[in-house]
Fold this sequence. Notes:
Oligomer: single chain
Radius of gyration: 17 Å
CATH architecture of the largest domain: Roll
Number of domains: 2
CATH topology of the largest domain: Archaeosine Trna-guanine Transglycosylase, Chain: A, domain 4
Helix content: 25-40%
CATH superfamily of the largest domain: LON domain-like
Largest sheet: 5 strands, mixed, barrel
Low-confidence stretches: none
Number of helices: 7
Distance between the termini: 42 Å
Number of strands: 6
Amino acid sequence: MKNNLPIFPLGLVALPGSIQSLQIFEPRYINMIKTCMSENHGFVIVLQNNNNADFGISKKGTYVEIIDFNNLPNGLLGITVKSENKVSIKNIYQLEGGLHVAEIKPEIDPEVDNQALIAEYPEIINILSQLVKHPKINELPIKVDFNSADSIAYHLAGLIPLSMSQRQNLLEAFDASQRLSILSKYIEKISTI
């Protein structure tokens, strides 16, 4: 992965392992996609925040690779990206055309005992197992690794109704153990509604 990459601030959180379909219309982002494709690298999706510091760009985001693109009937460029891994973002600067670029560092969570952790949260496994069998979800190109606590947490978080700030909290969690604990609390709140 390149060290300096384009940043795409959006109103969404791309969780690792997830697939996003985006419609691109701003010239700076159309040019970004062209450059990424010609130079064979991805870009970083970050949650846009209201903080004035650092152009309103979160310090944690997700590196994504473009897996498909097409011209949409509405005249916009449609792209599909696969979210690869969590990254930290620093030294953000803006190019003349308005595109933001930053120093990117992949973040690797500390190792966890996946099997022990998964055994601790059987309700999460059960919910995700049921969801992936749903006909609409079954059609999606989702590949859950049921032996990875992170894969389970990220995929479930992408499928249940969470706010973007809740998804950002999950992305920023220290490790899979903290992520599953947070997710478990979110599920408890949802189930009491």
